[in-house]
Each structure stands twice: as C-alpha cells, then as structure tokens.
Amino acid sequence: MIDISRTLNADTPTWPEDEPFSYDLTASIADTGSVNIGQFTTSCHTATHIDAPFHFNNSGLTVDQLPIDLYVGRVLVVDVTTKQRITPEDLALIDLQGVRRVILKTDTWPNGAPFPTEIPELDARLGSFFHEHGVELVGVDLPSVDPLDSKTLDTHHAFEANDIHILEGVTLDGVEAGLYHLSALPLKLEGADGSPVRAILQEI
Q: Which interval of the chain is the signal sequence (predicted)?
C-alpha cells in the first residue's frame, strides 16, 4: 500500500484564507485518570481532501450526499509532469477503457513543500472529455483543479456539469503511472462542502 495523503500538523500548508490545522490535547490521562482526549480544527480543504459540489455551487451536493463508491476502486495514475496546461489532447492516447477514476500526476507540489504560488492549469474541456470516457472521479496532486486565483472556477463547474467529482492535494512522490486500487473516503460530514481524506493506493 502507498499512502498518498499529506500529513496534517501545524506545518501543513493551507490556503492563505483558510483555518490552519491545529491539534490540541484538551484532557490528559493525568486529568481524566483513564484517557487522553484531543480536538482539532482545520478547513475542509486542507491537505488531501475531496470537494463536494456545494463548495462552489449553493445547490450542489454536500459531502454526506456523495456516493461513497466513487472513492474506492480501480484508479489510473496518469503522468502529466511535462505539462503546464493539461488538455484533452494531452490525454488522447491514454487508454481510458473501463476507467472510472483518474489521478493526474504533475509533480509540481512535492510533499512537505510550501503552498504553491502557481500550478498547472486543467483545461475546462476535460469535463466533457472525461465524461465521454466514463470517468467519474479526477484526482490531482495540486491544491485545486483551477488556477489558484480563479474566482469563476471554470474547471470545477465543468466537472460538476459532467458528473465528475474531485480529489485534491494527493502526494505522488515516487508513484509510477499505472493502475492501482484507490481508497480515499471522506468523513460523513452533514452539510459540508469538503472533507479531509486518508488516500491510499494499493498495487494491483
């Protein structure tokens, strides 16, 4: 198994406007006589996470409404490390027959690196391209499928319009392109716009 999740701690890079991750021990065994009890605070979009459509669409599905089978099953990791803009033409020769989940490997945000100032751009036409090929989940080793300063979130909306869901912030250091088994289940957060996940690849 390969852990493709970013570690959550006080040094985890976050979106500039978001709540940084913090964990505090609110009661210790010395206090309770039996257990340690902690609490954490964070944004739903810190480190490795999924976006629910409600994140960018007031009428979109929330995390608890998403079909969980999206996040478990065979996935194709595709190497796009040479691309600064990823288009349908770049993926035209990739065999997507029977592929329901795709993760795009850009290698532009290594694990442990600061929050990036710019990232490769995903062409919004990928929404219809992936839909035509039966892909329902797209993951990236980036904090977003749109440019970091985007307000229109064209690719987010194109993905939603084509019934494609989003996994962001995975870390693919040392992961080769190819087929794997993915597990990246979100927490069952009622009404939430996103959720951290523990994302795992298993060689098959």
A: none
Residues catalogued as catalytic: 55
Q: Residue 47, Cβ neighbours under 10 Å: how many? A: 24
Residues forming a β-bridge with 175: none
128: helix, coil or strand?
Answer: helix
- Contact between residue 78 and residue 102 where contact means Cβ atoms under 8 Å apart: yes
Instruction: Judge whether 134 and 96 are in contact, CB under 8 Å.
Output: yes
Q: What is the tens place of the pLDDT at every residue in 118-131?
A: 999 999 999 999 99
Tally the domains of the chain.
1
Summarize pLDDT for 135-145 with one digit per residue, the tens.
Answer: 999 999 999 99
Write down the pTM of the prediction: 0.97
CATH number at residue 91: 3.50.30.50
